Amino acid sequence: MRVTVAAFLMLSCGVASLSLSGCGGSSVAPATGLEMRIQWPEISRLVPAATQSVRVVVKDAGGFQTFRVANRPASGSFSTLVFFGLQPGDLSVDASAFPAADAQGVALAASSTKVTVSSGNQTNLQLSLASTVDRIEVSPASLSIRPGSAQTLTGTAKDSAGNLVPLSTSKTRWSSSDATVASVDSAGKVTALKEGSTNVTFTDTESGKAGTSLVVVTSSAAGIVDRVEVTPTTNALTVAQTKTLTATLRDASNGALPAAPGTWSSSDATVASVDSSGKVTALKNGAATITFTHTATGKTGTASVTVTTPTVNSVTINPATASLTVNQETTLQAILKDSSGTILPLEEGTWASSNAALVSVDANGKIKGLGVTSSPVLITFTHTASGKSGSASVTVLGTL
Prior knowledge:
Pfam families: Big_2. With 400 residues, the chain is mostly beta strands. It contains no helices and 38 strands. The chain has strands at residues 6-12, 15-23, 32-39, 53-59, 65-71, 78-86, 89-98, 109-117, 122-131, 135-139, 142-145, 150-152, 154-158, 172-176, 182-184, 189-192, 196-204, 210-217, 227-231, 234-238, 242-244, 246-250, 256-257, 262-266, 272-274, 279-282, 286-294, 300-308, 314-318, 321-325, 329-331, 333-337, 343-344, 349-353, 359-361, 366-369, 377-383, 389-397. A seven-stranded antiparallel β-sheet has the order 1-2-9-8-7-4-5, with no helix packed on it. Strands 11-18-17-14 form a four-stranded mixed β-sheet, with no helix packed on it. Strands 20-28-27-24 form a four-stranded mixed β-sheet, with no helix packed on it. β27 (286-294) and β28 (300-308) form a beta hairpin. The chain is flat and about 90 Å long. The protein starts with 5 loop residues before the first strand and ends with a strand.
C-alpha cells in the first residue's frame, strides 16, 4: 500500500497554509510514503514575508519520525517533499517557516496537526502556519524630548521564549497617536514638534502584534537625558583584578534619572574587558577607556582604567615538603604573592633541583624521584621578572 498526501502552501486569509489530502489502501499495513507539494506565493505576499524555507516533520503511529526541508525555488512556484518508510494510521505533521535556507534559527511561523490515514478512506485537512511572534517591544518604553529634537526608537519582535524573531521591514510600520505632538518615520525616528504627549506604536502587520512607547515633548530640562556619568572616573587595577563601574543618567539640572538600557564597551579589550553589567576585568599592562552608551539617546560617559602588573613580593611552593618513592612523580605549585599577601597570577619562572640526579623537575614543576636521598633535595622556583624564589624540600624513600 502507498499513501500519497499532497500539501499546498498558499495565502489564505492572511496566513500561510498547508492543505493535505490522503487515501488509504488495503487492510495490511506495510511501510508507506508521503508526498507533500508546496506552492509558494509571491515573496511579497508570503506569510511571513521573510520566509526562505519550510521544514516539515512527520511522525507515524509507530514512532518513526523524519523531516524534510523545502526551499523557496529560484524559479517556479512549487517544491515537493517526499517521505518514505512511514506506517499507515495516525500521522502527526509539524511545519515551521524560517528566514534562512537551512531551516535553522528561530521560526517565523509554525503549526502542528494530526491526520489519520485508514484503508479505503480519504482525509482532508488544512494546516495554518501562524506567526510565532508573541510580543513586540519598543525601546525605550518612554521618552522625554524637547521640541525640535529627534530620537530613534527600536522595535523588536520576540516569541514566547523571549527569542528574537526576524521581521520583514515591508510588513512593519510606525505610527503616532498624535502626529502634531511628535511624528515618526518608517525607521522609527521620532521628531518632537510641540509640547504634549503621544503614543508611538510599532506594528508587525503579519502577526498583528504591536508595542508602544510613550513620548512626552517638553521644554523643561528636567527628566531629559543630558549626559551620562560613569563612576569612578579613574581606576587603577592590577592584572586579574576586577571592578564594577556605575553609569548614571543626568538631566541638564544635574538631577539623576532612572536607569535605562545601554551598552558597555572598552577601547582596548585586551587590556581591560567590560561585561554588560559594567564589571571591568584587568587583563594586561596598559590603559583603556570604558564607555557606557545610553541606547535611546546615544549619549555616552567614560572612565579611564590603567592596568599594571602587581609586584611579586614572595614565592611559596605548595606543598612545602614532599616524600616520594623511586620513580614516583608529583607536581609542585608555585604561588606568587604581593606585599599584602594577595595571590597573583602565575608568571614566567624557572624550576631547578639542588640534586637533579636524585630528584628531577621539569618546566611545569613536575618532580620525579630518581634515587634514595640521605637528606632533602630542594626544588626551587625563581620568578623571572622579580628574581624572587621559593623552595620545597623533597625526600625520596627506598621501595618498601
